[in-house]
Design brief:
mainly alpha; 2 strands; about 55% helix; about 10% strand; elongated
Length: about 130
C-alpha cells in the first residue's frame, strides 16, 4: 500500500513535483478469465496473467489468454507468449504457462515455442534410443 501514495519531490517545504503512481496488483486488477474479453485487450490480459500468477484464478487467466492468442496473427501471439513467459520466469506459474502453450504450438512461432518443440523432439529421440 505504500507504493500507491503520492510522493512529493522538491526542496524542503517547497514541492516541485508530486508523483501519483498507478499501482497494479491482485487487489486492484480483476482477473480476465473470458477469452473474448482477453482478446479485446491482450496487453491487459497478459498483465492479469502475471498479476494473478499465484492466485486461484491463475489457470483460468492463462487459458483465457492462450485461447485469445490463437485468434491473433502469429507475430502478435508470439510477442505476448514471450512477454508472459518472461514475466512469469521459472516459477510454478511460468511452468504452467509453458505447458499450456506447449499443448498446441501450431499457431505460435515464438522463440519459446521453438524451444519447446525442440525439447519435445530431443525427448522423443532419447526415448527411441532407450
Amino acid at each position: 500500500k505504500w507504493a500507491d501514495r503520492a510522493h512529493d519531490h522538491g526542496i524542503a517545504d517547497w514541492s516541485a513535483l508530486t508523483v501519483r503512481p498507478l499501482v497494479v496488483g491482485p487487489d486492484t486488477l480483476a482477473p480476465i478469465t473470458d477469452p473474448d474479453v482477453a482478446g479485446r485487450d491482450l496487453a491487459l490480459a497478459a498483465l492479469t496473467v502475471m498479476t494473478h500468477a499465484t492466485s486461484p484464478t491463475a489457470g483460468a487467466t492463462m487459458k483465457a489468454l492462450s485461447t485469445a492468442l490463437a485468434w491473433q496473427a502469429d507475430a502478435i501471439a508470439a510477442a505476448y507468449t514471450e512477454l508472459v513467459a518472461s514475466g512469469l520466469g521459472r516459477t510454478e506459474a511460468g511452468i504452467m504457462w509453458r505447458n499450456l502453450v506447449a499443448t498446441d504450438l501450431s499457431f505460435f512461432t515464438s522463440p519459446l515455442s521453438e524451444e519447446l518443440r525442440e525439447e519435445g523432439r530431443e525427448e522423443g529421440q532419447v526415448k527411441e534410443a532407450a
